[in-house]
Specification:
The complex is a heterodimer. Chain A is α+β, with helices and mostly antiparallel strands. In chain A, 40% of the residues lie in helices and 24% in strands. Chain A has two domains: 3-121; 136-329, Alpha-D-Glucose-1,6-Bisphosphate, Chain A, domain 4, CATH 3.30.530. Chain A has eleven helices and eight strands. The longest helix of chain A has 27 residues, at 289-315. Chain B is globular. Chain B contains nine helices and ten strands. In chain B, helix 3 (64-70) packs across helix 5 and helix 4 (77-87) crosses helix 5. Chain B has a single domain (20-326), classed as Alpha-D-Glucose-1,6-Bisphosphate, Chain A, domain 4. Classes of the chains: A alpha+beta, B alpha+beta. The A-B interface holds A 209, 211, 235-237, 239-241, 244, 246, 248-250, 263-265, 267, 281, 283 and B 176-177, 248-250, 275-281.
Amino acid sequence: MNPLRSGESWWKSPQASLQRAALWNPYFYRFFGSEHGHVQSGLRPLSGDESCRALSQVVELSGGQHPRPTMLKRCLSRMWSSGYRPSNQDYDSMFKGLASKAVPHAATPDEAFKALLQDGDHNPSRAVRPQPEQADAMVAEARVSRDSEPTAVTFDGNVWTVKKEFLVHSPIKGVIGLLNPVNWQLLTPFFKKTQRIDPPQNPTGPTEPWSGVLHEEVVINWNTVAVQSFDALLKIDYTVARDMARADYSLKYEKDNQIVVDDGYAEARREASQATRYIGYKRLRFASSFLNLVAPALLCMFIEQDEVGFRDLLEREADAIAPHVSAANETVKAPKK
Amino acid sequence: MRSSKRLHRSAAGKPARQTVPRVPERRTDDADVHSMLWRSYLPDDARSKSLGLLKPHERPLRSLPEVLEKNQGKIPKPLLGIAVWNQVPSVDPNSRAPAPALDPALEQLLHTVLDLDGRTACSLRASPSYDAFPPYPDQLILDTRYVKQHHGHKAIATLEICVPTPFDPRHPNTDQAAEFDRLKLIADPRTWSACKLFWSQIERCDPSRIVKQPKTKRSINARLHLPGEKGAVSELVRLDIVEFSNDNPLRAHIRFEIRENRLTKLCHGYIGVQKEPGRPGAARVSNRKIVQFAPGWLDNYAFETLRYWLQAETVTLIGAASRSHRGGDK
């Protein structure tokens, strides 16, 4: 199975909207708690029970199996750690049923549920207190051995910044292919389209460097009703070397001027023959004050789904990435500003 | 370390002490340009003393702006821009105080070189964005940073400049990757002769002449020109490359040491070029030096000299790298 092709169709399916809406639930509640009376009703995220039902529908519509098991597992563990408890027996059994789909190797639903909680305990986005009493060398050792660094969100008074670092247990070649901006649509459910608008004369492979302009369409489902989309052009510089690659991007403009600042980079470095370190960095500022209010949660959701995407596509799939040139060479028109 | 490692062998096979030949101070146009530019960094009292350094026919001139205006044809435009900028007083743009009266020659230079009037120049000068470089009318600088500190007798300064690639806006369709590759050449000492005010005669040391030189440590002979009390002075120096890397498509850098000589008791340098993270089409050049100048004027005005060295070297090398593929057009 070619991961560069596998995700494309699913993100455009109706159940992907349900998945996106369910994902927003734990991120919103993690950041803002369970009180959400001040949020406009149209933008109110799904409740825990509603998310549970949405995820069940996703599984049902996908033929009884979630196409992205890591995504389902992370979504459920984050729901649990953000305070969700099923309100009645039906939702309780629904949640445990989902847990057994997310952890297919578990023998019983209870075992799957335990594995889920364990995943929540190792959740890298949980607050990690610095331990000054530890010797620097020990801290350094711990950093090296950790698979995933905590997601760091900072605010410099003007722009929100998020940084995420994790280890992908896959050769760098596969990671580089997905790092190519034209393939971002395969990595996370939020990209409806990532297409180069100034294609080169000669076809290029996914691991060949390029610089130019990318047309991206991003969709956020606040719940099962309200959808927000962004139609943006990004300036891209995708650099590839033998042991590393980096995709730098910065916003040229968003069609409806909804975004003021959007820049950052995604970097992959070879750590061992079967391990690649990924570093994601993103700066964002919306024009809307409401969106700026929820920006830290949004940024976390975005960047943590990168990790989930890599794990689902590369750590679970044994096949190597075949050259994929179509997305990089298709011609599309730039949206009118 | 035994001193014999630093010796050359004479034709007779006997060790002969390696000597760096002294050269006469340069009295060329470059030396005059060097002197003029350096004086633009000095405080007023030092500058007035140094006016005596001019050639006899220049003595009647009263101010540095007049000297610069008279000699503007000899000075590379980016460096002339910095020298002019150094003369501009900074005025808080929100202040209601009247703008200071500028020397007419300075006003004229501001108009000719930077396309600015005096009042605008004074208010822009107060902005941290234009601390290191003026707003060049034909070249975009995305941001700059200049940091200095001293450590004992050593002056330490770092200049960072973030420029678009392609650097020259007259050639917007230049291939971005190729332009960055050319910019990376700044880290290669063999290209430094493009900054002829400071460097010339750059050549790799002949390995056969050096006894037991470590293979990892390559050396380069170069003539270093620095401004001085009696105009520019030059010295043949040995530059040891401590670290050099240019095979990464994202960055290149060099660390080097200049052995003690008549001009510098100590000089450690770093020049790095890297693609700016999260900013496609932008590159950052960092130039850092730790210097202890030989006693005298250079040491008395160590930070002024170092700032001049870093600014002139950086802007000249970037300009040269940008022009290199177009056959050096100006």
